[in-house]
Recover the amino acids of this structure.
């Protein structure tokens, strides 16, 4: 059922559905599409865009291809088959893994793998075989430093 207001009341809302559950209206300041019944408001399409009033894209949902969130019309976050991609350098994977490209600052500790940890105080622990490139300083258990020049073994 379609209910179109005749302008004789202050409730000038276009209502759709048996109980008028879907409403289109303007309150003098804002425009609304409202689901006022017990169901959900569902938008369907192969590609669904949500835009700002100036036509700038805010959200894009593509069937079988993911969702993009945009800031200032530039893709900032997207869902992928592997998880979530933030910008061009951070991937948060469904399995809990995180991939970060470029320079990263971490305020807590970082666990690289089961055998390596980097702590916020600058200390690091490694177990198993560890390979270093360049000149490396290694703190020995007795508190002294061992230095390994490039190309040499300790």
């Amino acid at each position: 059922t379609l209910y179109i207001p005749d302008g004789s009341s202050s409730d000038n809302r276009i209502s759709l559905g048996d109980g008028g559950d879907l409403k289109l209206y303007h309150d003098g300041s804002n425009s609304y599409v409202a689901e006022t019944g017990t169901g959900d408001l569902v938008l369907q399409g192969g590609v669904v865009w949500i835009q700002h009033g100036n036509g700038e894209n805010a959200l894009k949902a593509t069937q079988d291809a993911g969702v993009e969130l945009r800031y200032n019309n530039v893709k900032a976050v997207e869902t992928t088959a592997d998880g979530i991609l933030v910008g061009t350098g951070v991937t948060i994977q469904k399995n809990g893994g995180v991939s970060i490209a470029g320079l990263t600052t971490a305020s807590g500790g970082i666990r690289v793998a089961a055998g390596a940890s980097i702590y916020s105080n600058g200390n690091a622990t490694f177990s198993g075989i560890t390979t270093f490139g360049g000149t490396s300083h290694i703190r020995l258990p007795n508190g002294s430093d061992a230095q390994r020049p490039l190309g040499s073994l300790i």
About this structure: The longest strand covers residues 57-62. The mean pLDDT is 76. The two ends are 83 Å apart (CA to CA).
